[in-house]
Amino acid sequence: MRPRTDAARHDPALLRYGLIFVALLFLGLFVVLPLIAVFAQALEKGWGAYWAAITEPDALSSIRLTLLAAGIAVPLNLVFGLAAAWAIAEFQFRGKNVLITLIDLPFAVSPVIAGLIYVLMFGAQGWFGPWLNQHDIKIIFAVPGIVLATVFVTFPFVARELIPLMQAQGTEEEEAALVLGASGWQLFWRVTLPNIKWSLLYGVILCAARAMGEFGAVSVVSGHIRGETNTMPLHVEILYNEYNFAAAFAVASLLALLALVTLGAKRLLEWKMRQDYADFTATEGAEG
Amino acid sequence: MAKHGFKRASILPGFWPTFGYSVLYLSLIVLVPLSAVFLKTATASWAHFWRTISSPGVVASYKLSFGASLAAAAVNVVFGLVVAWVLVRYRFPGKRLVDALVDLPFALPTAVAGIALTSLYTEHGWIGRWLAVVGIRVAFTRLGVFVALVFIGLPFVVRSVQPVLEDVDPQMEEAAASLGASRWVTFSRVVFPLLRPALLTGFAMAFARALGEYGSVIFISGNMPMRTEITPLLIVTRLEQYDYAGATAIALVMLVASFALLLGINLLQWRSRRYAEAA
Fold first, then answer.
1. Residue B235 and residue A113: Cβ atoms within 8 Å?
2. pLDDT at residue number B22
3. Which of A106, A256, B68, B193 shows its CA 20 to 30 Å from the CA of A214?
4. For residue A214, what is the nearest residue in chain B, using CA coordinates?
């Protein structure tokens, strides 16, 4: 049954269909069509060419590097996200809002600048450049620089999912567990983690997706050495600039698939979170 | 706060390790490297700094970056409101899929978006060939920069308006209708004012994102000097010429603009929260 108050919110049919048409046209032009274009052009020369493009050695090495960078950046930012959320949500201290704003800072910075700052630190003319050079350590135009830039651009993802959720959940459950004799780690594993698991996973997925797709920041620090310092997005750029469009779109289609998986996972986790929340309110109601 | 201490007393463990680690990690990854931009600029001469950031090519890039970002964010306010409205208020087949697709610009790597949009809008592309008939060129023009920035900013307005629209109390519209207001008057006088803070926040976020955007723009813009070069691209070209001071000077201008926007967005959100709590 629809509530009666909906009568006042009922738009005329013509307006309704008109607005739906405008919305779908806009999304179709700007979202669906580019997505279809990626796959259509990737398969333009057939499955054989597609397979060859994504399995040639430079493509495979770009896939390996992308996975490596994400594999380092995600756990680092996961640990940070948990630590920051614990400190911010479970305790009251001065300057908390400043800390929250600073955590969001990497989102406000252009990816190009994210790359630049590490060049200024570790590049040949940078602060640590001469020292690194003496000790024969390469960061810029090498894998460590790519990892650093990836860590920077994905820095806030886990923390910003967890902080609002843990703030909303309050500290009662943790305090109760502590009074009942739980240790600090037991508190975290048995009480806090089960409450935040879906948001945590959601943050990790967003973090991983961005880590694998980052272009601007990584482009600045990579030096574009084929087979060595090219991630998948950089490999796409090189192929595209060589007018090797089918191969560029083939590698791009893998990244597009990753984006679609991310969107699917997001939906699933949102559904899980809603379900948990419904269970939570149901038990609260039964207890009360 | 007890006795004006730094931290209020709590029985929970782990504050100092987690707080200490968070601040240390934040400093090492974000704060210290970002401060390099400011310190590097401080060591350069003022005259050189000024010459760099006010040279004709750089000024042309500010105009393009700011102009196209503003225009794209404005377009996203209009269409984002329509999309949010349709998703919240109407029922139609495939609605959940459409809702999920709104986030695609967040999830799709920018380089992929860049080459996909370029291929659509060149003279032989699926869209470009029809626009060519009426004499409109998009790829490798300023219009192309605008198209890429519309794409990149699309989810911001939808996602900031959607929850607010869902929370609008039906009784308000009911009351307006029962007092004889037409649907349009109800929308413009009752619903729209409630959405305004969210629209403004979405606009500012889309604008901020567009200003710094690089990957999706550089393919479709063609990067012609003085005409289709965006500001982030100039930072990259300076770096490629090993002109660190020049790259840093332009980056500083962009950072100041981004921080001002971030501050503005936080103020907006803080104000709308206070407004919501007061209501």
1. yes
2. 97
3. B68
4. B109
Residue B248, token pair as written in the block: 């840093």
**Chain A (89-148) residues lying within 8 Å, Cβ to Cβ, of chain B:** 90-94, 99, 101-106, 108-113, 116-121, 123, 125-127, 148
Q: What is the pLDDT of residues A222-240, one digit of tens each?
A: 987 777 889 999 999 999 9
Q: Cβ–Cβ contacts within 10 Å for residue A257, how many?
A: 12
Contact A238, A224 (CB under 8 A): yes
CB atoms within 10 A of CB A1: 3
CB of A87 less than 8 A from some CB of B: yes
pLDDT mean over A239-245: 94
Instruction: Tell me the helices (H) and strands (E) count for chain B, helix number first.
Output: 15, 0
Determine how many CB atoms are found less than 10 A away from the CB of residue B35.
Answer: 14
Q: Determine the 3-state secondary structure of B7 from DSSP.
A: strand
This model of the complex carries an ipTM of 0.90
User: Do residues A206 and A78 make contact, with C-beta atoms less than 8 angstroms apart?
Assistant: no
Q: Does A71 touch chain B (CB under 8 A)?
A: no
Q: What is the DSSP letter of B138?
A: -
Q: What is the pTM assigned to this prediction? A: 0.92
